[in-house]
Amino acid sequence: MDDQRVGVIGGTSLTGECLLPLLRSDGRRVIAFSRRVGGSGREGGGEETTSGPLLEGGDGVVWRELGVPVQPSGASFPEQIAYWVCVAPAWVLPEHFTLLERAGARRLVMLSSTSRFTKSDSSDAFERTIALRLSRAEDALRRWAESNNIEWVVLRPTLIYGRGRDKNITEIARFIRRFGFFPLIGRGMGLRQPVYAGDVASACVGALKSAVAVNRAYNLSGGETLTYREMVARVFVALRRHPRLVKVPRHFFRMAVQGIRLLPSYRHWTPAMVERMNHDLVFDHTDAERDFSFSPRSFYLAPEDLPR
């Protein structure tokens, strides 16, 4: 990787927040793209593709505002950027293909998710839609990259956590703080592999630089496999509370989820999500370990990983 410039789409996301300083410490000049210059909005994606004003952040990252979609006209981008990382939701990336072409992209790392597989047969229509959008985004990337002679890498992390900004562990912690217990269907023995956002960001840097990680997709699982029950118990411990796990009948749980979704913090909860408590969601990251030294940590929650 001889070019020092790296473009980042989704720099205000959880993974993006971890990625930007890693790229800077690796000696890269980072141009981060956001709907709001400076990235103060912390949005997860949906950025538009245009070349707005530049702003040099205090962290040495150059922020470029994104506005109306770029119209095909053959014009080149103001600054050529050969290497790119997309840590916004995968399905927004195709909106930016014209931008990448004009910027002279030669290699792109895109963050997808193992939800592509785990939610494809979900009983919840929205979750099935998410899986389909991930699958289509990966397919679109391959077709576009191959037709433009651009190297691509797809990374599919498991359950991402960290910095109190994720949508999984954070919501479990909020529930425990609010109600003092956590409900389980059955014994909650489905296996999980939570992966820390910083480790996902490190994988993005590794994949961007690896000579062998070309035109391939990799699963990124955490460094520890544990049951759903144990995962929740560790959230209790991180909150300095004794674990109170309550077994709830399936039919009652489904009704309770419908009610709790009325609260903003739990609007993402679905009956399908809680029914997976006893399903194994396990993925092998051996290929990522071999090709770009992916070495995820065990599941641990530091104070800064809990919601504010």
Folded structure, characterized:
The two termini are 38 Å apart. It contains ten helices and 14 strands. With 308 residues, the chain is α/β, with parallel strands linked by helices. Helix 2 links the parallel strand 5 and strand 6. Strands 3-4-2-1-5-6-7-12 form an eight-stranded mixed beta sheet, with helices on both faces. Residues 38-54 and 68-72 have low confidence and may be disordered. Helix content is 33%, strand content 17%. It is globular.
Mean pLDDT: 87
What percent of the residues sit in helical stretches (DSSP H or I)? 25-40%
Biggest sheet features = 8 strands, mixed
Radius of gyration: 20 Å
Number of helices: 10
- Name the helix and strand elements from N-terminus to C-terminus, one letter apiece: EHEEEEHEHHEEHEEEHEEHEHHH
Strand order of the largest sheet: 3-4-2-1-5-6-7-12
Number of strands: 14
Task: Give a brief description.
The protein is an alpha/beta fold and 308 residues long.
Keywords:
14 strands; alpha/beta; 308 residues; two-stranded parallel sheet
Describe the SSE topology.
Elements: E1 5-9, H1 14-25, E2 29-34, E3 54-56, E4 62-65, E5 83-86, H2 97-102, E6 107-111, H3 115-118, H4 125-147, E7 151-157, E8 160-161, H5 169-179, E9 182-184, E10 191-192, E11 195-196, H6 197-209, E12 216-220, E13 226-227, H7 228-238, E14 245-247, H8 250-260, H9 271-275, H10 286-292
Parallel strand pairs: 1-2, 1-5, 2-4, 5-6, 6-7, 7-12, 8-11, 9-14
Antiparallel strand pairs: 3-4, 10-13
Helix pairs in contact: 1-6
